[in-house]
Amino acid sequence: MKKIILLTIIFGAVSTFFIYKNFYHEDMNIVALGDGIALGETAFNVQGYSYNDYLKDYYEENSILKEYITEFSNTEETTTTLLLKLQTNYTLESTNTSITQAIAKAKILTISLGMYELNNKKELTTAIIDEYINNMEKIIKFLRIYNKKDIFLISLYPTLKINKEQSKIINTQLEKICQNYNIKFINIENITQTPDYFFTKENYYFNYKGHQYISEQIIDKV
Asked: Which pTM value belongs to this model?
């Protein structure tokens, strides 16, 4: 009789474990930081669907999305302006949520930063690239202080202003920084080989196909 009771208890415990493992999902908080790429900016100066929106949809469909915050992003965000937000603990007036609070709660934190900043320079010099890389490391180091979960950094890619050699140099350095801080680096450098991902050849903003592609890369690494 004792053996039967013991086996029943063990069976119940094992069953509970597998039910928990297969059906329990932790609530998902997604926080997006960055420039126009993070917000789905288009070649027509309006915001469309971004890769972050596709991420939101994916977790919403799986009924585990708790919070989705994009308000800390800005179409003209630079490493300098984001650093200032972090250093001053910028707070959203609408929800009274500070940037450090949002970062700390995020289960997925995405960053896409540099395309606006570097593509709007008259000349992309070595000094400008070095400053960008230095600022990016400061940002990533700051984020890791407040968040130990999944952080994804989207790479840069060649444009009319950023040539292939510069893009490769920048991404190599960004990837090294990511390795040092256990950040997941999403390299989309080869995305320019697929014209279908862009609105026009002259503009570096993606269409919905480009953003879908990036979201799929992130989901695959979560």
From this structure: 0.87
